[in-house]
Please model this.
Amino acid sequence: MLKPILLVEDDKRDLELTLIALERSQLANEVVVLRDGAQALDYLRREGEHARRSPGNPAVILLDLKLPKVNGLEVLKAVRGTAGLKSIPVVMLTSSQTESDVVQSYELGVNAYVVKPVEFKQFVTAIADLGVFWAVLNEPPPGSLRAARRYE
Model:
């Protein structure tokens, strides 16, 4: 069973573009979309409206930096501070090129910091490459659940 990709994005346009890009990459992984950091934490902790979701962590978290309720840096800090979550790959997917945002993200343990390209074609290519790398090619840490790989 393939692990889902968790996409946490509040901007409607960026969300639509990201979903188009992931679809074009032809990944079989389900994409779980959440619109703010509080929802993301509830999902990851299996609390609130996500209390009954199936156990297991996503293959990767694609996390926007500027989110309502709980921002991306706070979500990242919570993920890295929780034993059952800290090994999940987290990609900060943002329009911010501010040096302090980049530095703080890496200090908190982000796996990658990707600035969203402005041009549609570059954006689609960047997201598709991210999805394939983290959901298919990346080898997860020892002891984590492994998604079944299908070869055709």
Summary: Residues 142-152 have pLDDT under 50 and may be disordered. The longest strand covers residues 90-94. The longest helix spans residues 120-137. Strands lie at 5-8, 31-34, 60-63, 90-94, 112-115.
